[in-house]
Structure formats: structure tokens, C-alpha cells
Design brief:
This is Lipoprotein. This protein is α+β, with helices and mostly antiparallel strands. It is built from six helices and four strands. The longest helix has 21 residues.
Length: 145
């Protein structure tokens, strides 16, 4: 009973993490960037739209865990909770990938939270850090969402 009461109090007082700062957001972003990397590796060009990435069959989907990552990626993309910078070719400038944001939770610009860098790392940034960090820029024309 005490555990339930504490949970209700924490929830009502706003002491739980916002969605953009949750472990689920970090996991979702990780699966999105992994799928993005696999897409570029297979097609030799970046995805230009959500459908290209969401419908992509990972080349190693038969390996344990990869099918789960692919499914999680599709679910995350379709949720509308994440912004992905389409058409950024991660293979063109590998050194730059560690410093540019490729995907982020939609609330990050106003509240902070997890972002995924083009090199695959997910990290929590506050809104000021997010504003000051470079975002990936399309290297070819993309289809708007």
C-alpha cells in the first residue's frame, strides 16, 4: 500500500521523468539510429522518408535481437514521438557523426531529453544544449513527412 501511495504522490507532484528523458526514449532512439545505419549500409544512401526506414528489412534480421530492434524501430517511428533528420548520409563524414544530432524526441527543443547522434550514441541534453548542438543536414532531397 505504501509503494502505491508513494507512486501516486510522485506522479501527481511531477516527480516522474518526462517522456523525452525516459529510458524508453533512449532505447527507441538507439533502435532508430541502428536501423538508419543498417539502411545506409544496405542501400548505400540515406533514407529520405519515414516509410523507407520503417519498411526496411534489416539485412541481419535473422540474428537474435535484430528482429526485435527492427520492430521497435518501426513502432517508434510511427508513434510520432521522434524527429529524424532524413537524407543525412552518415557515410560521407564519419568524424562529423559524433557531433551532429540525427534524431530526437519531439519534446527535446522545449523541455530537453534524449537525442541520438549520427554515430549512434544517445545522450540527454537540456534545451539549451540541444539548441547549441549541430543537427544533421540532409545531403540529398528528402520527402517531407
Amino acid at each position: 500500500m505504501r509503494v502505491i501511495s508513494a507512486f501516486v504522490i510522485l506522479t501527481l507532484t511531477g516527480c516522474t521523468k518526462p517522456p523525452a528523458e525516459s529510458a524508453q526514449a533512449k532505447a527507441d532512439l538507439g533502435s532508430i539510429v541502428l536501423q538508419y545505419h543498417q539502411y545506409v549500409g544496405e542501400h548505400r544512401e540515406p533514407p529520405t522518408h519515414i516509410d523507407e526506414l520503417a519498411e526496411f528489412e534489416a539485412p541481419f534480421g535473422w540474428l537474435q535481437g535484430n528482429a526485435t530492434v527492427s520492430s521497435q524501430c518501426t513502432t517508434s517511428l510511427r508513434s510520432g514521438n521522434y524527429v529524424v533528420i532524413w537524407s543525412y548520409n552518415i557515410a560521407e563524414d564519419l568524424q562529423r557523426n559524433e557531433s551532429v544530432i540525427l534524431a530526437y524526441h519531439r519534446d527535446v527543443p522545449t523541455s530537453g531529453g534524449y537525442v541520438a547522434f549520427a554515430d549512434g550514441r544517445a545522450r540527454s541534453l537540456n534545451k539549451e544544449q540541444f539548441a547549441a548542438t549541430d543537427k544533421a543536414s540532409p545531403t540529398k532531397a528528402s520527402i517531407s513527412d
